[in-house]
Design goal:
Blueprint: E1 2-4, H1 16-25, H2 31-52, E2 56-59, H3 67-74, H4 90-98, E3 112-114, E4 121-123, E5 126-127, H5 139-149, E6 153-159, H6 161-167, E7 169-170, H7 181-197, E8 202-206, H8 216-229, E9 235-239, H9 249-253, E10 259-263, H10 270-275, E11 283-289, H11 299-313, E12 317-321, H12 340-343, H13 349-364, H14 369-386, H15 391-398, H16 411-422, H17 439-449, H18 455-476, H19 493-496, E13 500-503, E14 510-513, E15 516-518, E16 522-528, H20 535-542, E17 551-554, H21 556-561, E18 564-565, H22 571-591, E19 596-600, H23 615-630, E20 638-643, H24 652-657, E21 662-665, H25 677-680, E22 686-689, H26 702-713, H27 734-754
Parallel strand pairs: 1-12, 2-6, 5-7, 6-8, 8-9, 9-10, 10-11, 11-12, 16-18, 17-19, 19-20, 20-21, 21-22
Antiparallel strand pairs: 3-4, 13-16, 14-15
């Protein structure tokens, strides 16, 4: 029986990769030093996995920005605008991802979107009709040699050819991406051949599209792919995750693969489906420890379920996490200040590998002292979880009625009252919420946490930042202002730190994209709001100007999805508990005279199940949770929401049902393609399609933004449109933000002039 690692976090337990990347991008670190830091991290992570008992160490899970981008570079699928000659190098990857690198000519970055139903963002490969592929980037092969030099057996982890095509976009003209499959398979065959030549015995071929509903051409493509790749003298582990693949069981059972990995955390029911179809010599890798959450596994319960399987399969059973540990923090050992009763409930990436080792012990040596200790700890943890209930929160949720979810009037009547109160111009300009988190702000927060500043001193200095942010917006001529969120470390963590039933870590970082890391809160009990969370800052900012300043909140669906939520009650119950806490904050903001309240829901689509048959149940409670958080306000209070880096076409009806007065969305990287949803759907409210990409340091040109808004105006009535960036501005510098917003305001004035 083996332990199977599908992949490990690459950022480092102290975010070493993040800081090295940002130093390199600023020109403060030579490229060789960046590569040396990356190599040291890889070696550390491989050693941890080997120490836990993993026999085949994953290769290809490490990426300088994104693993899909790494594969695209390997396949030479790089857009022409990002090339600097024929060579693909490290700066090529950064030009694709960020729009610029220390070398080469800046160009618009490639599109970025969510990886299936996770909060991880991948860079979307751009493929042209007749695209040719070839091996152009040697990272995979170099890392295979690194593992071998350490004395271990490498297992390359590759996104499969069909999933690669599925996640890519047709660029330049519409065509069937599957026409590229034969050429792509030639290069995959070359890749696997080179691995075989390096002595690799197993390759993990990841086809997460199997969790989706696929039509016949895509299913045929999967069969064609594995028929082609199985001709090589190398063993293939077909790997999928994030959902059940049982609906494709007949196809999968016929594929010529040496092994199969199943995610039994998201879909435990599929085990019986595939046990009956498993070939006599096939390996079965079972993902039984959750790779996407931090709660310690009930190993005794898992072992009891797996014992018959272990007896039948013996060494053909591999124990694994449900998916790559990319979505997990690195090492719980750094959390020295967590309450002991909470810490014992947790397992980060390193600890999850140790859980797999303990599970193996339970299955192979259940009468040992180690096994008995594991069972005792599992029972104790469950008893402790049961003591976290809050009857008052449960009673409030049970007492809700249908009227608690609805505004007083329909949108047209609300719109008239809001226009009379706000008196905004045509095409009002605004931003999404956050402004630059400068080194000075971060240093200020750090000094406060170390006790070097009193709470009063800290607040007074942050008020100066807030005042400066308001004054900058006024000089720029923006119509609806924000206070800038200087006091917030993260849009979810900030609220998590102020809610009951929620804990937080100091080093529980998870990569969201590139060098961007987040530290999700830990929802361990029933959630409530003991006191106002944003009220003082909203009141102060509004006191500085006669222009409206938005109250800025994170919505319940996003707080749920971007937290590590407890697993002992349903997610919709947790979400509605959070919604009640946000509702209390909304009511306080309105009573304080805040006329516009934004409740961000960028993760709304992220929770969508992968199969359409399961969508409606999720959409019902997600929409209800948002409405519950906002429905307490009067008609003349304007409710905004924000969504980004998601496809909207297939959920536009549910988004409209949220009944927000204004929605701002990311559209610039896709050149307003995301607005296609509005061509056939008569969206009832107002909308702000993002006119420039905040994840690129490039300054957007006035005419480019004018062209984007003119394109938007062909789909949406001009009086419904707002003008805003794609997303919040916290990751940018003022030197980047002010020219961009100045151009955005100039573009808006030009549009108003053209419209008379």
């Amino acid at each position: 029986m083996q332990l199977n690692s599908l992949g490990f976090p690459r950022i480092g337990r102290r975010r070493e990769l993040k800081f090295a990347l940002e130093q390199y991008w600023r020109g403060e670190l030579p490229q060789q030093e960046l590569q040396d830091i990356a190599k040291a991290l890889r070696h550390t992570h491989w050693q941890w996995q080997a120490d836990a008992g993993v026999e085949r160490l994953p290769v290809g899970d490490f990426a300088y920005y994104d693993q899909v981008l790494t594969l695209a570079a390997t396949l030479n699928a790089i857009p022409a605008r990002h090339r600097d000659g024929d060579k693909v190098d490290l700066d090529t990857l950064f030009r694709v991802a960020r729009g610029r690198a220390p070398s080469g000519t800046p160009a618009p970055a490639a599109e970025m979107t969510k990886y299936f139903n996770t909060n991880y963002h991948y860079i979307v490969p751009e493929l042209t009709e007749g695209q040719r592929f070839s091996i152009a980037w040697e990272q995979y092969f170099d890392e295979v040699e690194e593992v071998k030099a350490l004395g271990y057996d490498p297992k390359p982890c590759l996104l499969g050819p069909v999933s690669f095509l599925y996640l890519s976009k047709a660029y330049g003209s519409e065509f069937d991406k599957l026409t590229l499959l034969p050429a792509l398979l030639e290069t995959y065959t070359e890749l696997l051949g080179r691995f075989a030549g390096q002595g690799v015995s197993w390759v993990q071929i990841e086809e997460p599209v199997l969790a989706l509903d696929l039509d016949a051409p895509w299913l045929d493509a999967l069969k064609q792919s594995f028929d082609a790749l199985s001709a090589l003298k190398i063993k293939l582990l077909l790997t999928s995750y994030y959902g059940s693949i049982a609906h494709h069981a007949e196809l999968i059972a016929g594929l010529p693969v040496a092994g199969l990995h199943l995610d039994l955390v998201s879909a435990p029911e599929q085990l019986s489906v595939f046990l009956s179809r498993l070939g006599a010599s096939q390996v079965l890798s079972l993902g039984v420890v959750n790779g996407r959450n931090v709660w310690a596994a009930d190993l005794d319960v898992i072992a009891e379920r797996l014992l018959p399987v272990a007896r039948d399969l013996g060494e053909r059973l591999w124990l694994a996490t449900s998916c790559s540990l990319l979505h997990s923090p690195v090492d719980l050992a750094l959390e020295t200040s967590l309450a002991p009763e909470l810490k014992r409930q947790l397992a980060f990436a390193r600890q999850k590998l140790i859980e797999l080792r303990s599970l193996k012990t339970l299955l192979t040596n259940p009468d040992s002292d180690e096994a008995r200790a594991v069972v005792k700890e599992c029972i104790s943890r469950r008893a402790q979880r049961e003591r976290a209930a809050n009857p008052a929160v449960q009673a409030r949720l049970a007492g809700l009625t249908a009227s608690d979810y609805e505004r007083d009037s329909a949108f047209p009547e609300r719109q008239q009252q809001q226009q009379a109160r706000l008196k905004l111009p045509l095409l009002p300009t605004t931003t999404i919420g956050s402004f630059p988190q400068t080194p000075a702000i971060r240093a200020l927060r750090n000094r406060f946490r170390k006790g070097e500043l009193t709470a009063l001193e800290y607040d007074n200095q942050l008020k100066q930042v807030c005042r400066d942010t308001i004054e900058r917006q006024l000089k720029l001529g923006i119509d609806v202002l924000v206070h800038g969120e200087a006091e917030r470390n993260d849009m979810v963590e900030y609220f998590g730190e102020q809610l009951c039933g929620v804990g937080f870590t100091k080093n529980g970082w998870v990569q969201s994209y590139g060098s961007r890391c987040v530290k999700p809160p830990l929802i361990y009990g029933d959630v409530s709001r003991p006191q106002p969370m944003t009220l003082d800052w909203a009141r102060y900012a509004q006191s500085l100007t006669d222009k409206p300043v938005k109250g800025m909140l994170t919505g319940p669906v996003t707080i749920l999805h971007w937290s590590f939520a407890r697993e002992d009650i349903s997610r919709d119950t947790i979400c509605k508990q959070i919604a009640l806490a946000i509702r209390d904050e909304v009511a306080d903001l309105e009573r304080a005279g805040i006329a516009i309240i934004q409740i961000d829901e960028p993760a709304f689509r992220e929770g969508l199940p992968l199969r359409k048959q399961d969508w409606q149940a999720y959409l019902d409670w997600a929409v209800d949770s948002f409405k519950l958080s906002a429905a307490c306000v009067k008609d003349d209070t304007q409710i905004h929401t924000h969504m980004c880096y998601s496809e909207f076409n297939d959920t536009i009806g549910a988004i409209a049902a949220m009944d927000a007065d204004v929605i701002t969305i990311e559209t610039s990287r896709s050149a307003m393609e995301l607005l296609n949803a509005f061509e056939e759907f008569d969206y009832p409210a107002e909308i702000g399609p993002g006119v420039y990409d905040i994840h690129s340091p490039n300054t957007p040109e006035v005419e480019a933004m004018v062209a984007l808004m003119e394109r938007a105006a062909r789909r949406i009535a001009i009086r419904q449109l707002w003008v805003n960036p794609d997303c919040g501005l916290k990751t940018r510098t003022w030197d980047e933000v002010e020219p961009a917003l100045r151009n955005m305001v100039a573009a808006t004035r030009e549009l108003r002039r053209r419209l008379g």
